[in-house]
Amino acid sequence: MKKSSKLFIAAGLATGGALATLFAPDKGSETRKKLKKQLSKLRGAMDGRCSKDKLLMVKEKLEQHKLRVDKHLQKINSRIAEYDLESQGK
After folding, report:
1. Global pTM?
2. Residue 78 scores a pLDDT above 80
3. Which helix (DSSP H) or strand (DSSP E) does residue 24 occupy?
4. Where are the domains of the chain?
5. How confident is the model over 11-70, as pLDDT tens digits?
């Protein structure tokens, strides 16, 4: 397997794990511990063996994922605001 493939797999796993952790029904402190552990694993997997170009490519992909997550969070916040307005009107 190519190094770049391994890097994409690691980045995908980290992103998926982070998203799963964020939407899990744990307390905030537990969520932060899990995220810290996952980021530590990712740093260990990369271990300085990546070129700058590969890191920039992964950074760009993660930023694209972040934009998608932000869009979903905006939708969720809008729905919550709608529920709040409905509950105030009753």
Report:
1. 0.42
2. yes
3. none
4. 3-89
5. 777 777 777 766 766 677 777 787 778 777 777 666 666 778 878 888 888 898 899 899
Nearest to 42 by CA among 20, 9, 66, 65: 9
Instruction: Say if CB 54 and CB 8 are below 8 A apart.
Output: no
Q: Give the 3-state secondary structure of residue 2.
A: coil
- Locus of tokens 């992103």: 15
DSSP string, 47-89: TT-S-HHHHHHHHHHHHHHHHHHHHHHHHHHHHHHHHHHHHHH
CA atoms within 13 A on the CB side of 20: 8
21 contacts 38 by C-beta, under 8 angstroms: yes
In the numeric block, which tokens belong to residue 28?
A: 């905030």
Q: Residue 74 has what pLDDT?
A: 92
Which amino acid is it at 81?
A
Q: What are the residues whose beta carbons fall under 8 Å from the beta carbon of 49, sequence distance 6 or more?
A: 3
